[in-house]
Amino acid sequence: MLVSLSQAVGDYLQNVFVMRLNPWVLLGYGGQALFGMRFVIQWIASERVGRSVFPAAFWFFSIGGGVLLLVYALYIRDPVFIIGQALGLFVYLRNLYFVYRERRAKLAT
Questions:
Q1: How far apart are CA 28 and CA 57, in angstroms?
Q2: CA angle 79, 82, 83 (to 5 degrees)
Q3: Residue whose C-alpha is closest to residue 44's, from 32, 61, 66, 27
Q4: What are the residues whose beta carbons fall under 8 Å from the beta carbon of 69, sequence distance 6 or more?
Q5: What is the pLDDT of residue 2?
Q6: CA–CA separation, 95 vs 10, rounded Å?
Q7: CA gap 47, 3 in Å, rounded
Q8: How far is it between the farthest Cα atoms of the chain?
Q9: What is the C-alpha radius of gyration for the chain, rounded to an integer number of angstroms?
Q10: CA dihedral sign, ordered 85, 86, 91, 97
Q11: How far is C-alpha 34 from the chain's CA centre?
Q12: What is the spatial distance between Cα 10 and Cα 45, in angstroms, rounded to a whole number?
């Protein structure tokens, strides 16, 4: 039983991560990597100042990862994934706008 389960899991992982590997999946991996890096950026920035902050780089990584993941979602034709990424991109762009609006206001004073 355990050997059978182990074989089934191994077969599943082989199918998902090896047999289905193609340039589109690599694009999706790249998007996911960019998207994940935003948390590393946010963590480092917060540790430096001792409080929670979201630097502009967080939003740039969000946008980069979001765009690549949206392209991938469009390719695989997943409506849930498409809606999630498209709406997320709007939020990331809006937050980046707020960051730069605040910086301009500080420079003007």
A1: 20
A2: 85
A3: 61
A4: 28, 31, 32, 35, 81, 85
A5: 72
A6: 42
A7: 46
A8: 72
A9: 19
A10: positive
A11: 5
A12: 39
d(CA 19, CA 11): 10
Amino acid letter, 83: I
| 65 φ/ψ angles, rounded to the nearest 5 degrees | -65, -40
> How many other CB atoms are found less than 10 A from the CB of residue 56?
14
Only one residue has tokens 């920035």, namely 45
Structure tokens at 35: 């998207």
Distance between CA 5 and CA 24 in Å, rounded? 30
Residue in the structure block whose two tokens are 């980069």: 64
Q: Distance between CA atoms of 72 and 76, rounded to whole angstroms?
A: 6
Taking only the tens of pLDDT, the chain with its 109 residues reads 677 998 999 999 999 888 989 999 999 999 999 999 999 999 999 999 999 999 999 999 999 999 999 999 999 999 999 999 999 999 999 999 999 999 999 999 8
Comparing CA positions, the residue from 70, 59, 67, 61 lying closest to residue 37 is 61
